[in-house]
Write a structure and sequence with these properties.
Two copies of one chain form a homodimer. The first copy, chain A, has 329 residues and is mostly helical. Chain A has one domain (7-326): Farnesyl Diphosphate Synthase, CATH 1.10.600.10. Helices cover 74% and strands 0% of the residues of chain A. Chain A starts with 6 loop residues before the first helix and ends with a helix. At the A-B interface, helix 5, helix 6 and helix 7 of A face helix 5, helix 6 and helix 7 of B. Chains A, B: Belongs to the FPP/GGPP synthase family.
Chain lengths: 329, 329
């Protein structure tokens, strides 16, 4: 296959067969004879043909260890359900913030559906895990679910809090992204019956990949000229304490500190503030520093893979770690 | 003990010791070192000293079958966590409806916390179940969670829909109340290692009790002179298709039908409509009929208990079924 083909596309090709089973399972389990609204709400999310990174992580982790199914398919669908449920609940949390306390009735209707359909997907994912019959898998995913929810609450309370440090940021990032990435790879290893040290290696890979992924996401918020449909500085406007801002705040003194207190701490933002924030980030090397930290996590992810069986799937996971940070190079 | 003492108070007395353990477990598991907001939000809900009906159902079901712990305590805490999580998510769904699309920023902040802390409690409950090591328990509670979420979505879509029939109503009621009641009693029997027919009897008891409980709740919405802090006709104003309304609508013709189409179907309510609705409910015996149906479900609950060991706890559960419908006599 062409070397220019992206690693997630190569994974999708190598895992085409089980991925098709995952898709079929997702469609079957989303259905609800009692509440037809449920597939209506989830269809555009799950059916929109996202990259399916998380289910591919589970399938790759299981199959690189020689597993041939069927329960990696259940677990891949589980992971995608959990991801979709958190997206639905994030919508409620994020949208209401953006509209500054004045959502439309239509938005509220969506909020109701988002909350309840998210709950339904959580319950469905839970049923899928039970079908695997593996208590270890249930334990891993229950812990991941708690970390995810805790991280979301932490993000909510850390917002606009200038005292937020890198340790808290890492907990938030684990909740937002890395906990599900690492659970996805870990349960793949567990269901394959892999040795404990290999399962731990997979868990570490998923964790580091997820952290790198989220840091890159936070960096892209400051990157101009992309057609990813996001505006530059959304996080700044929403007063989120992302790593670049945390580092610029840590280096701030005098007037700079006053600026952050006003714009992030008190949320009094004016024209020109975004440009000033960017300037401060550059002045203190906060963007370059975050980029280096993200690359270090990607290296850690690749390093984690070394004890795993040397095969094509492992190579693709290694390339995936490079690709995640290549988005910002 | 005085015969005037209510059955749930007698249960609380008989189960005082394990209930104290449940309370301690709930407090311990609510805590989050990473996100102190979580106990803040849950404290007033769980700590407010509710009747703890659901955890008592689990403890009673286990102990009437000779179980001495410890996992009924985990499961009782699980059930209370799930109940609290659904209350938190219901708040989001109900409050936003009441404010007609114009909630305050403060309300929205609560919405965010409600969604995320509810998710956290779901995850915590899931961890507690895993600790019991019983895959059968996990299966029962996963199915209950799916039924609950489905019922909530169904209620949302059935709202203001005059074609809603009694079959749909029963599905909604199972989702709102009976699914968790029956899971609570069923897992109590399972963890006690009770025979399959006894587990099924417990499941049927919880289901019937929950249905009677919810029907009474829907009737109380029309009862004047209570100091329960609810206004008469809240369900009518919110255009909920409860059993009394379903029956009055089923009997409606001509002008009566036009009335329901306007007030429930299109939501155009005026002064005097509530009184007119009450009059129609009385004219068609919809309140008396619902009361009879609720009593029949309570009888079914009592009947279900007959194969279970004849002891004090069983007597209390029987009296509890009578008490639930006595509220409307």
């Amino acid at each position: 296959m062409d070397a220019q083909v992206k690693p997630h596309e190569r994974l999708a090709h190598a895992l085409a067969e089980p991925l098709a089973e995952v898709d079929a399972m997702i469609r079957a389990r989303m259905a609800s004879e009692n509440a037809p609204r449920i597939p209506e709400v989830t269809d555009h999310l799950i059916g929109a043909g996202g990259k399916r990174i998380r289910p591919m992580l589970t399938l790759a982790a299981a199959r690189m260890n020689g597993y041939l199914g069927p329960y990696d398919v259940h677990l891949a669908a589980t992971v995608e359900f959990i991801h979709t449920a958190t997206l639905l609940h994030d919508d409620v949390v994020d949208e209401s913030g953006q509209r500054r306390g004045r959502p439309t009735a239509n938005l509220l209707w969506d909020n109701k559906s988002s909350v309840l359909v998210g709950d339904y997907l959580f319950a469905r994912s839970f049923q899928l895990m039970v079908e695997t019959g593996s208590m270890r898998v249930l334990d891993i995913l229950a812990n991941a679910a708690a970390t995810i929810a805790e991280g979301e609450v932490l993000q909510l309370t850390a917002m606009s809090d200038l005292s937020t440090g890198e340790e808290t940021y890492l907990k938030i990032v684990r909740g937002k992204t890395a906990a599900l990435f690492s659970a996805a790879t870990e349960v793949g290893g567990v269901i394959a019956g892999a040795r404990l040290d290999l399962v731990q290696a997979l868990e570490r890979y998923g964790d580091a990949l997820g952290i790198a992924f989220q840091m890159v996401d936070d960096l892209l918020d400051w990157q101009r000229g992309d057609d990813i449909g996001k505006n530059v500085g959304d996080d700044f406007r929403e007063r989120k304490m992302t790593l670049p801002i945390i580092r610029a705040v840590a280096a701030a003194e005098g007037e700079e500190w006053t600026f952050w207190v006003r714009t992030i701490g008190r949320g009094k933002q004016e024209d020109g503030d975004l440009e000033r924030a960017e300037e401060l980030l550059h002045r203190h090397g906060a963007l370059d520093g975050t980029r280096e930290t993200a690359i270090a996590w990607a290296e850690d992810a690749k390093e984690a893979l070394s004890p795993l069986p040397d095969n094509e799937l492992r190579d693709m996971l290694r390339d995936l770690a490079d690709y995640v940070v290549a988005r910002i190079r």
